């Protein structure tokens, strides 16, 4: 397959919930083997994009195509085959607390294949070793640190070698060193096996480390698309301010007033 093959294509997408429109005329694509970061403030539509891509939320207008197919036009069997090609790393990990880590990673194989248990166990050991958890199969999720849970969740998301990995805030809630480790792991996976990823994140350090390209959302629209360097030098002040961590004027005025009150004599 050509390195420039388009895995995900979003064309003039408008989407929302009931009468509430969240995304308006959004267009972008994802190339095979790249990491695309979706960034922007809370409620700007990043998670809505993900829900639309996997077929959970139908477009109001426009269309999405994943692997060249429309996920909203599939019958049940085709939809199951389609979803097997996608891995999902949830923000909270979403490991099943009543199962061991090994059983969590084995779950997709037990649900969707007829592989013997001995083969599944060997695959699970390989997948856990790939994320730096070679001895964690017998542990329960509650016995893991936050970073280990994210790694175990990533192992499960990658269990069936998906063509596309979706990551929702992979470094959220982790200390900076552990978060950097998750970022490095994602980048290593991309480089070693050529995995295509869409990563939803607010973390500027993560964006700079892992993103090949970035889509920045603002008020339901794709405000800017490009590399980190291109967005840093954007002509749009809102984009530059995001990367410079510059607060909006109303927040800056509030901080100035607070500082003045703290300095005034009682």
Concise synopsis of the structure shown:
This protein has 266 residues and is of the alpha/beta class. The chain has ten helices and nine strands. The chain folds into two domains: 181 residues, Rossmann fold (3-Layer(aba) Sandwich); 69 residues, no CATH class.
Describe this structure in words.
This protein has 266 residues and is an alpha/beta fold. The protein has ten helices and nine strands. The protein folds into two domains: 6-85 and 163-263, Rossmann fold (3-Layer(aba) Sandwich), CATH 3.40.50; 93-161, no CATH class. The chain has helices at residues 46-53, 76-84, 101-112, 117-130, 146-157, 176-193, 204-210, 228-232, 237-244, 249-263; strands at residues 6-17, 20-31, 35-39, 61-66, 86-89, 164-168, 196-200, 213-218, 221-226.
Average pLDDT works out at 87
CATH superfamily of the largest domain: P-loop containing nucleotide triphosphate hydrolases
Q: Which CATH architecture of the largest domain would you pick? A: 3-Layer(aba) Sandwich
Would you count the extended β strands for me?
9
CATH topology of the largest domain: Rossmann fold
Q: Proportion of β residues?
A: 15-25%
Strand order of the largest sheet: 5-6-7-3-8-9
Instruction: Please report the distance between the alpha carbons of the first and last residues.
Output: 71 Å
- What is the count of distinct domains? 2
Determine the structural class based on helices, strands and strand pairing.
Answer: alpha/beta
Q: Main beta sheet, described?
A: 6 strands, mixed
């Amino acid at each position: 397959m050509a390195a420039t093959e388009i895995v995900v294509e979003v064309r003039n997408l408008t989407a929302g919930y009931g009468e509430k429109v969240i995304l308006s005329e959004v267009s972008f694509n994802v190339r095979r083997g790249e990491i695309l970061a979706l960034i922007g403030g809370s409620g700007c539509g990043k998670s809505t994009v993900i829900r639309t891509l996997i077929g959970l939320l139908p477009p109001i207008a426009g269309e999405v195509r994943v692997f060249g197919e429309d996920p909203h036009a599939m019958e049940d069997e085709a939809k199951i085959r389609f979803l097997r090609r996608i891995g999902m790393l949830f923000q909270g990990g979403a490991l099943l607390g009543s199962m061991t880590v090994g059983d969590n990673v084995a779950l997709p194989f037990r649900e969707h294949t007829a592989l013997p248990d001995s083969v599944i166990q060997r695959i699970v050991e390989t997948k856990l070793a790939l994320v730096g958890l070679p001895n964690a199969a017998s542990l329960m999720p509650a016995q893991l640190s936050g970073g280990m849970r994210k790694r175990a969740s990533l192992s499960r998301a990658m269990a069936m070698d998906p063509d596309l990995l979706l990551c929702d805030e992979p470094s959220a809630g982790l200390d900076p060193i552990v978060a950097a480790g998750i970022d490095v792991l994602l980048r290593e996976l991309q480089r070693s096996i050529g995995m295509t990823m869409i990563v939803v994140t607010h973390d500027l350090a993560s964006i700079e480390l892992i993103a090949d390209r970035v889509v920045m959302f603002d008020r339901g629209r794709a405000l800017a698309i490009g590399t980190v360097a291109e967005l840093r030098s954007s002509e749009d002040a809102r984009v530059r301010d995001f990367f410079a961590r510059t607060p909006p004027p109303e927040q800056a005025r509030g901080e100035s007033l607070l500082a003045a009150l703290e300095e005034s004599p009682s």
